[in-house]
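hey team, just a heads up i'm posting the complex here instead of the shared drive bc the drive is being weird again. everything in one block, sequence lines first with there labels, then the predicted structure for the whole assembly after. its two chains so it's a bit long, scroll down
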Amino acid sequence: MDNLLAARSLMAISMAFHIIFSCIGMVMPFIMAIAHYKWNTTGKEKYYILTKTWSRGVSILFVTGAVSGTMLSFELGLLWPRFMQHAGPIFGMPFSLEGTAFFIEAIALGFYMYGWEKFNKWFHWFMGILVGISGVSSGILVVAANGWMNSPTGFEYNNGIFSNIDPLKAMMNDAWFSQALHMIIAAFSATGFGVAGIHAYHYYKGNYPEFHKSAFKIALTIGAIAALIQPISGDISAKDLAKRQPLKLAAIEAHFQTQSNAPLILGGIVDTENETVNYAIKIPGALSFLAHGNFHTEVKGLNEFPKDKHPPVVITHYAFQIMVICGIIMMVIGLIFLISHWKFKYILSKKWFLYLVIFCTPLGFIAVEAGWTVTEVGRQPWIIYGIMKTKDGVTQMPGIQYSFYFFILVYIFLTIIVTWIMRRQIRFINEQYSSSEINSSC
Amino acid sequence: MLSIVILFFWISILLYILLGGADFGAGILEIFVGNKNKEKVRTLTYNTIGPIWEANHMWLIISIVILFVAFPSIYTSITTYLHIPIMILLLGNLSRGMAFIFRHYDAYQDEKSQQFYNYIFMISSLITSFLLGVIAGSIVGHQIQVTSNNFLDTYIFSWLSPFSISTGILCVVVFAFLASTFLIGESETEEDKKYFRKKSLIFSISVFIWGGIALIIAKLWGTPFIENIKFISWNTLSFLCSGISLLFYWKLIFSSKKWRARFAASSVIMWMLVTTALFIHPEIVTFKDQIGHSFLSSAANSLTIYYLGWALLLGSIFIIPGVVHLIASFQAKS
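-- predicted structure starts here --
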């Protein structure tokens, strides 16, 4: 494994790990605040238990997100010093603002976690909301920094020298809005479905049903709404990509030849040698429509660009397909849930529906991982799109592969222990309350 | 604006040493107290440091962000040459944070898993503090070998040196000293107060001794800054201030006003930091046989500095009252 590949892999695994916890860290406070709101207004004990259980979960996952995020802020320099040397002053603005947002988040979480019965109940509730608001702000800011790598602006570049730097313009790059919007909605649907799936499982098992039913309902409502609006933001992203990074769009679609009336390719096996996709379903004109809003517009293919600037087509293409499939499934289930629950109020007790929701537990997170694979792998071979190649940014220190192997073990261990501890949280609740009587009316 | 950014950097570093240090120190203290007192330390730590520990560690992030936005050469030379200790530091930080949270939020408080978390927490507190000291020592102590061509000299002996190890130990002692001082004020019974007072006395003397040892090692291994000491200079003055604060501290820990002793302890550490900064001035990252980076030599373009300065100023409007209020809300009622 050469140094570049090792550094990329280490960065990828760190990000893949961190993104799960940052999604949960952004969204969970809101879900928790809904339960807390119900506790404040109705005084039903199950909401109190729910809020407390979720808040403990938030704490555990928040810390995992925070420490893995700290790792990333160092890894930028540990792995990509030659990139940071130039990029730091240009795209650092969102990071410096994120510092404040994250600080507020940590402070609010301190108030929230340790503030039960110490403060006014609405002040306490608001601290929970504040954790979520600052979490989402952090998320937007970090994605804006990534947006700059895709759509670098706010400087002039001549012969390897960056001049005339404007960090504010760099932060407000062309990609930040579409990327951040897509990411935030994805976080809501992934977390909503993830949490709903876990509670659906316990509800199905008959453990402390009122509790898990309420939990499941709150989380799935959030997830379903997010999953339903996500295609709109996906459309914005596609149109934006067609303008800014046509090469990435071509790789996503495995669209080898420039053509008008370009087809949308579903499934199939990509054959990069013959530049074709076999056994795929092709919807004529659909790609032209998605990219430009017109069935006949020409869409640029990979052939327009020199081969050494192509991103890995196979990975980008499949990752995109995986993301879309997960998104569509969640959308359909979300729609079923919203309509039937709102209209008939009976769907929650249907077994087949519970199966579906349980099946969906990891889908949102798979979609998030796949989506980031599209963004990051699709930007290759560039670290700053069109300006600096990834291989020119990597550290000069040899032997990064050992760090990579080591941290793989660390992340596997962490994944196991976090899963284990979260399971203990739920088992505890089930044991504690499965026999007790709690007056409830759902 | 540059001076504001530099000021913020030093304030963040200082607050990280003081608040983050007290937090690390609590873990170190757990190792150095007898079995029957371990639980006491844990409960006190949880009650007082629990709510703010996340915020404490944000100061490190703030200083890192300041470095990579405003002084990229400083940031990249640290992350390039001190890659290995930073990696281990990160791992330590990761395990420490998670162990701390797990032991309090684990639904089942059974002995076996609690013991496991405690063990991880103590070990990682110790290792992380030690490495922080090692890294700091390498940065200020002319240890980094940029001109060498072989792997060992550049990436290992840049931080694995007698001086860096001595600052590593110094850092451990300093953190334990801060934590024990902090816990005096949080103890509820007179007996506990007495106990932590004794601990903090021992650690304060250790700080004094290890500070001296680090200086002697610096002298023996020919670290340049020692050669440049003049008897009458700013750094001798700030060194004296540190000593005087220590004398005050020894008097104040017997007073019943907990904040006085804390401020005296913080003042000891602050003046130690000032002395170090003056020793290496104007450099920040020092290299072996080579001129290092100073803030001025590595500053980014003025517009970046300008915006960063404003971001920090605006940020502090939110952060400082928040942190103060948070600390105040969870103080033991005395």
